[in-house]
Amino acid sequence: MATAYVLLAGSSRRLVAELRDALDSCAERQRQLERSLRVCRRLLRAWEPAETLAPELTPGPETNEEAPSAACIPSPQDLKELELLTQALEKAVRVRKGISKAGEGDKAPSLKSGSIATSPATRASAPPSTSRRAGSRALETKPPRGIRQTRVPVKDLPERRLLSVGDQACMGQGAGATKPESGLRNEQIVLSAASQAPEAFTLKDKGILLQLPEAFRKAASWNSRPAGWSNHVAFWFVGCACVHPSLWAQLSSTQTSDSVDAVTTAKMQFLQKMQTTSGWPGSRLSATEVEAEVRHLQKACLLLRLRMGEELTADPKDWMQEYRCLLTLEELQAIMGQCLRRLRELCTAVVEQQLGPWPEGRFPRASLPCGGGADPIWSPQLLLYSSTQELQTLAALRLRVAMLHQQIHLEKVLMAELLPLVSKQEPLGPPWLALCRAVHSLLCEGGQHFLTILREDKPAD
Amino acid sequence: MGRRRRRRRVDPADAARALPEAIAALSQMLPAGPSPETFRRAKFDRPEAAPALWRLLFRVLSPQLADGASASFSLEAQVRSVKLALRTQGYPRRALAQLPDDGSQGGRELLLALAWLLARGPLPERLLTQNRVQLGDEMPVCECEALASPGPPAPSVEADGCVDIRHLQWLMGKLRFRWRNLMASQQEQCALLGKIHSYTRGCHSDRSLGHLSVTETELLRDPEGGRQLLRRLERENARLQAALQWRCRELVFWRWMDTVLGACPPEASQPTFLPRIPTPGAGELETLVRELQALQGELREAVEARRAAWEAGVRGRGPEWSAARTALREAVGRDLAALRRVCERGGGRSLAQLHGPHRLVRTEAGAPGGPGLRAPEVIEALRSREAHLEVVLRQLQGQCGQELARLVGAPPGPVWILPPGR
């Protein structure tokens, strides 16, 4: 079964390009998230008055401790792989803890215990708040440890990481008495930070006292208010200083007046005049239009397929329902016919206009405006959530939907390129079996599982 | 209202001032907008106006580039990119395509191209939106980004050679791994956001927001960053004001552009010479054709089978049946009207109100709360979306399974043992 199967060059290029695209878009999302995570983590650590020195640059005792081991440096590639592995482990732990802690933390957000520089004694005397705080602190001090980890010799890593996982997990029950190592170290950082700068504080303790600077408040409220507010403000009060709508709201408001009509007409005339004086024959489809039309037909196809699936799986209870189902399918067929006609027109137009394929084999997609291009909403609306868990559910679902879109797209591409390969190949030889197995895994199992192939006649390889 | 009416009444002295004002507003609202003088020179096709306008068009046509990133492109690269982008969008004038690539010429043509872009859509608004200073913690609740997946053209360094199928499997595995990572990071971020929001409860001057966002909190932690943010915000406010002024004054600009266009001789028609325009990859069109045809085939089969079954059993129904049939027909028509509209014009949206960026606001459980979208509503919409997409994916996988079984099953071949749990 180990026989390698080589794909045709043409199809492989497209498949690899599509997969790389998917990988790149994932990586870009990840980068954005990491950026925001760094900021969030920093905010949740102790705030020091010396702002220019980022806290993660001065973990003090930790860097000294690791200095000798930096002598044996693993290869960069090892490190990279290692980092991926540790990141994955780290994240798995974080998510688990995050979810369990999040629920806990929400129930009593007002329960704020003492200042951050509490002594071990007070922690021991107040076990419930300790557990919560320990959990959050473990999150806060992640980055310095991440930095340290990359310098550690390869062999040590997994054990250490897993050890710290265990530590954190048992912190809640252990109270202060059997203080694990990592917890102590965290404490030291906070304490030393506190002793160097007496004014250091955490968001958790003093966050509620924060105030935005006046200049910023003014600029921000002039810039944008939540849309829910400004929509209720009548625009003819513009002159009144007290209730002026924000700039974004004014820009988003759809004005209808004679002057707007005149401008629209003037623009139309300009475009027409330009077209008639142009050296290229008129009314050609632009590539962007073709692109938009293709996107739209893809969407229509998805919607029709969904609806068809619903109808086919429905179980009609009586003849009325049965007939209704039949009529629905016929109607879907009619809509489908129109879509196909449009697509054929599009294809002929593309051929007639001698629109060549994109030289790179890939069309640079313009970022489509949100909302299908109709009337974009410029000032942000509000999205109200009531608990961290709710927010996490929402975010997870968003990602899941995006992932499914990508999976469906990839499935279609793989289908179109791989199925013909299977049918073309001389059957039953070992390479063919290997190919079938790989194709089955990619197409039917999302690449996650493999089927087993049993041959009864003679050993395959 | 009164002010607007006054503005529309044109008196000669006003008119003389109106054009420079309109152009000033235009140049102020555009990213890296050149001075109004450049526009005037461009009308007379003066070469010194050309480089600034090429750069402006480059910025306008590649909005995803961050501020200052365009400086890393040579003028020549910018010129070529502008030409290609305009052709892709269907820009009708050939004169622009024939300008030299060194960016030394073309003041008037470039002015026309800019006007063409302005006339076609809400360009200023779109540019402002794309570079918006984001103050809140925002979450888009729509799938536009998922569907659009804007990506740069794939680098052509891709090896031309053949690829082992195991390479594809490896890439797929990597992709799954990345999604898992993403999921985990996202969950952590939500947990941290939740904390920051609840720790800063009541700190925001805007009562409907209540708490601070990450950006706002960071501004307090890092005063220098805060000052920069304030400067960016003030710049954006100035551009927004300019955009509003432009709206009031643009009519004059269009009259002026008409004279600019009038000054150009009409281009000779040359139907024989047509440069190649990039279109979506041929593969994409073919895939779509196949997909639609497959779906049509499935529908035809289903309809034929059901129609036949129905015809066989339909005899013996009474006269009340024909009335019921008409009613059903109308009901189905109504039922599918929305779907038909979406498929025909593409105007409809499945998640009508759920579009655009949304600022996250944490509310007390049970508190009435102000205007805004509620998370549970969005969650519900996304759940049903997820379920639909899962069905589609399973259908596709099933289809592949059948096709493979057909290809493999013909000879008395090997026994397939499917992986467990399916």
From TrEMBL, chain A:
Region (Disordered) residue spans: 99-150
Entry superkingdom: Eukaryota
InterPro entries named in the record: DUF4693 (IPR031518)
Listed Low complexity bias regions: 115-138
Entries under PANTHER family matching the protein: TUBULIN EPSILON AND DELTA COMPLEX PROTEIN 2 (PTHR14870)
Protein name per UniProt: Tubulin epsilon and delta complex protein 2 isoform X1
Organism annotation: Physeter macrocephalus
From TrEMBL, chain B:
Transmembrane region(s): none
A Pfam family hit: TEDC1
Segments forming domain Tubulin epsilon and delta complex protein: 90-261
Domain of life: Eukaryota
Protein name: Tubulin epsilon and delta complex protein 1
Species: Physeter macrocephalus
